[in-house]
Amino acid sequence: MTVILTENLTKFYGEHTGIKNINLHINSGEIFGLVGANGAGKSTLLKTLLNFLHPGSGKATILGLDIVTQSAQIKKKVGYVPADVRYYTCLTGEELLRYTLRFHGRKDDESIYTLAEKFQLDIRKKIQKLSTGNKKKVAILSALIHDPELLIMDEPTSGLDPLIKNIFFDLLEERRQKGLCVLVSGHNLDEIQEYCNRVALLGEGEIIDIKDNAQASAAEKAKKVILLCKDIPLGLLKELAGDSLKIKGERFTFDYSGNIEQLLAVLSQYTIEDIAIANMDLEQMFLQYYKVKKP
Asked: What are the beta bridge partners of residue 87?
């Protein structure tokens, strides 16, 4: 079932691009990741889908409902974890979670204690007394406690320790298998790559590319190629490698996203002294797109 559908969704801040011509089709039972540099448009996209920001043009639906005209109905079916958690500081975690349940017309108080125990959260404490990580736990519980059909999260694991992160992702996977759709933005590329079915790379408000982690075969995934060869024509290498080609003497390094067997068939016509081929992870793709050097 289609959960999120956008068509040329666009938002400008004056003359500055927030998001531009965003086209997405995200289904139930899918964890979809958003990555990009600061200011790439990740948070703007999430806030526009939630109608916290009004789109300038284009359109979008969530669960078949228009994000602008039917926003109130959408919010009954959505959980949201903001990047910056700001709740009523005078309330305890338990009081906030009870309020969340009542807001959604639910009375399942036992779920509060079950989730709090799972996340090792003392819900008796006032929110103003909680650490940053524990405030983020409250936000996660508040987003999950009413069993939403869609979970939208902006940097959900910032402030969480590794143990809680594992518990969190195990719970997400459990709910995904039951049909939950998740849209998550993050800077932890290892987490995004490991847990997301698909990942969109954003730059300057636009989608640069979408990587399918679930369906791409090993032969089709992007590779890092290191080649030592004396007689291969430079023009051919440039054709294969594009702008990613780096040359150091007779050593050539480049990124390749085509069929690896076809690449090897081409290279086999020349005198190869050594070759190494490795999968390119999401971090390498990110650096390639943004042309940023590792420190």
From this structure: none
* pLDDT, tens digit (0-9, with 9 covering 90-100), for 97-116: 999 999 898 877 788 999 99
**Within this chain, do residues 144 and 228 fall inside the same structural domain, yes or no?**
no
Is a pLDDT exceeding 90 seen at residue 117?
yes
DSSP H or E segment with residue 247: strand 246-248
- CA pair distance 72, 163, nearest whole angstrom: 35
CA-wise closest residue to 183 among 18, 10, 27: 27
Shared domain for 9 and 44, answered yes or no, is yes
Alpha carbon 254 to chain centroid, angstroms: 26
Biggest CA-to-CA distance, the chain: 73
In this prediction the pTM is: 0.78
Asked if residue 182 lies in contact with residue 157, where contact means CB atoms within 8 angstroms, the answer is no
Contact 200, 34 (CB under 8 A): yes
Asked if residue 244 and residue 193 are part of one domain, the reply reads: no
- For residues 43 and 154, is the Cβ–Cβ distance under 8 A? yes
Indicate which CATH number applies to the domain containing 80.
Answer: 3.40.50.300
- 15: containing domain: 2-212
**pLDDT digit string, tens, across residues 213-262:** 765 444 456 677 889 988 999 999 999 888 788 898 888 988 887 788 88
18 and 106 fall within a common domain: yes
